[in-house]
């Protein structure tokens, strides 16, 4: 091993301190939300500065959140959008990526047209008219799935990953009599599971965090996803559906702790899923991001 010089040691020390500070700055907001969600409402409202531990451990905020029927209907709708939306995303993105990874006459013009949509779009009003008036998907969960079935960026990543597969595999499958769909679903996708896992993560997180399209197209509260319910609580300060008692309804602190508890309830599920996909993440991104 090479002997480190004094300047190397100083650099490593400074670099380590800066990275540690970055980790603290990144994790503290989440830690603050956790501590605040378990804190006593009145003491939390009176506190200023850093929050290092809960003030008077209390589960009252979580009880109020879980008593809210909109939370469970939001979870139901979000999971429906997450599951069926991600399946639709993977299916159509894989079809497009496989087709664009093969050599054919109009491949380049089609790719240019697809990339064009990354920089220019029809705008909000044409999108609303298309979904609501022409496709007749207004006030339905399909409005949150079909218009976002393919992400151009994810399509490019998956196409690049498919292009990296040896052409001999495709040719040998064709010689054995396999069709294009058989090649895609029996050979290409099984050999590209790291990038498929990345697509699941990208699309899944996008569906989980999405609220704007729901606000735009949905009118029935029974169809609201969880993030739209969260927006009402955090941005519009609407906690009327939390079934607060008369003695507590006027306490601003209770409303504040409810906001933190709602954030935790809406965030924890996606955090539990991520570790199962993390081991594929770096490999999948590298495979799909480098073109030979």
UniProtKB/TrEMBL annotation:
Cellular component terms (Gene Ontology): plasma membrane
Keyword terms, alphabetized: Cell membrane, Membrane, Transmembrane, Transmembrane helix, Transport
Pfam families to which the protein is assigned, alphabetical: BPD_transp_1
Top-level taxon of the source organism: Bacteria
InterPro entries xrefs: MetI-like, MetI-like_sf
Subcellular location: Cell membrane
Entry keyword Cell membrane: yes
UniProt topology in membrane: Multi-pass membrane protein
Domain ABC transmembrane type-1: 75-281
Signal peptide (UniProt feature, chain positions): none
Bilayer-spanning residue ranges: 12-31, 79-98, 110-129, 141-162, 183-205, 258-277
GO BP terms in the entry: transmembrane transport
Broad class of where this protein is predominantly found: membrane
Similarity comment text for this entry: Belongs to the binding-protein-dependent transport system permease family.
Protein name: Putative aldouronate transport system permease protein
Organism: Cohnella phaseoli
């Amino acid at each position: 091993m090479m002997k480190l010089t004094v300047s190397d040691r100083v650099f490593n020390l400074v670099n380590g301190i800066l990275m540690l500070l970055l980790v603290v700055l990144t994790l503290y907001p989440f830690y603050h939300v956790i501590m605040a969600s378990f804190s006593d409402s009145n003491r939390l409202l009176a506190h200023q500065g850093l929050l290092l531990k809960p003030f008077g451990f209390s589960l009252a905020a979580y009880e109020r959140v879980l008593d809210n029927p909109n939370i469970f209907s939001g979870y139901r709708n979000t999971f429906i959008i997450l599951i069926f939306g991600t399946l639709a995303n993977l299916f159509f993105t894989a079809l497009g990526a496989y087709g664009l990874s093969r050599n054919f006459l109009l491949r380049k013009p089609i790719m240019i047209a697809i990339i064009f949509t990354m920089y220019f779009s029809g705008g909000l009003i044409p999108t609303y008219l298309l979904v609501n008036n022409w496709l007749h998907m207004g006030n339905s969960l399909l409005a949150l799935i079909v218009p976002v079935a393919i992400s151009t960026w994810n399509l490019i990543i998956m196409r690049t990953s498919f292009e990296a597969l040896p052409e001999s595999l495709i040719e040998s499958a064709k010689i054995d009599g396999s069709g294009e769909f058989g090649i895609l679903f029996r050979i290409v996708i099984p050999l590209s599971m790291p990038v498929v896992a990345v697509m699941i993560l990208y699309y899944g997180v996008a569906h989980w965090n999405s609220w704007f399209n729901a606000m735009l197209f949905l009118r029935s509260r029974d169809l609201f996803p969880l993030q739209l319910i969260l927006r009402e609580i955090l941005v519009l300060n609407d906690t009327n559906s939390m079934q607060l008692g008369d003695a507590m309804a006027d306490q601003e602190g209770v409303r504040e702790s409810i906001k933190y508890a709602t954030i935790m309830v809406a965030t924890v599920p996606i955090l539990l899923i991520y570790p199962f996909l993390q081991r594929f993440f770096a490999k999948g991104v590298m495979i799909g991001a480098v073109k030979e």
